[in-house]
Amino acid sequence: MANFALFWIWAFVFCLCFGATKCHFSIPLKIYPGKYNLSAEANLSSVRVVALKSDGDGLSLASDPSGTINFLDMVNNLQGDSGRGYYIEMSVGTPGQKLNILVDTGSSNFAVAAAPHIFITHYFNTALSSTYQSTGRPVAVRYTQGSLKGELGTDFVSIPKGPNGTIGINIVAILSSDGFFLPGINWQGILGLAYPELAQPDSVVEPFFNSVVNQLGIPDTFSLQMCGAGLASSSTVDPPAGSLIMGGAEPALYRGSIWYTPIIQEWYYQVEVLKLEVGEQNLNLDCKELMDRKWAGETEGETCCKG
């Protein structure tokens, strides 16, 4: 993945959606020394079919009308909410078995339920896929919440509201888990979008998005719009709640410029935070306290601060 973290000026995390409506909360983001703007020349037309062309610095420009990727096809391809997670529909195996897959930037394995579980309605039946191949390697992954165990294999995946094409990927067939699947969830697997360093059983296992980039030739960039904060966790029907744009960013989903900040270490998306402000007021957060909480497991290991 490109060694820059993408920030959307509005609605990256703090946004509220109801049904298919647009986000209503807007929180400005300021970047302090080291900032640079890579999107001033971007075409901001919101209705077009695009191909992706790298500008050399990691930003994918939507500029070629003869392209094969339509970012607008990926808009609203996420469902869920901030409490139960955001998921995308995928077709796994041959013939394809439809599964909802949780999107996670804090892990690097693509893993799907391959056995019944009380909290899920269906699972990936490896015996019914003519293209599934087991490597015989056991895999164990521990998350901030829950853990899973299974076996590593390979198969083919397509994404109805994603890039066109079928991708051969590494897949963990989940055979047992503890606290991973929860009551009320509508997903049956997880898509880890972090770097190979976090992949299990070792970093040789190519993560899902790396496979997409290598096989479909799209730029090494993805962007996330996550809405749905405040929706009742008891809701039985999940409305569209955001977008996972693979290959760049859809200008119709944001206002202003896109900014990048360097990745400090390629495992989680670890960046250096110098200062946080809300409404022009400096929060004066103690960096040491934040770091202590991170290593105690109270926060994701995606932030580094410097006093």
TrEMBL record:
Residue ranges of every copy of the Peptidase A1 domain listed in the record: 86-307
Residues spanning the signal sequence: 1-23
Membrane-topology annotation of the record: Single-pass type I membrane protein
Compartment annotation: Membrane
Main location: membrane
Tagged with keyword Transferase: no
Top-level taxonomic group: Eukaryota
Entries under InterPro entries matching the protein: Aspartic_peptidase_A1, Aspartic_peptidase_AS, BACE, BACE1, PEPTIDASE_A1, Peptidase_aspartic_dom_sf
Membrane listed as a keyword: yes
UniProt keyword list: Aspartyl protease, Hydrolase, Membrane, Protease, Signal, Transmembrane, Transmembrane helix
Family: Belongs to the peptidase A1 family.
This protein's name: Peptidase A1 domain-containing protein
Organism: Ataeniobius toweri
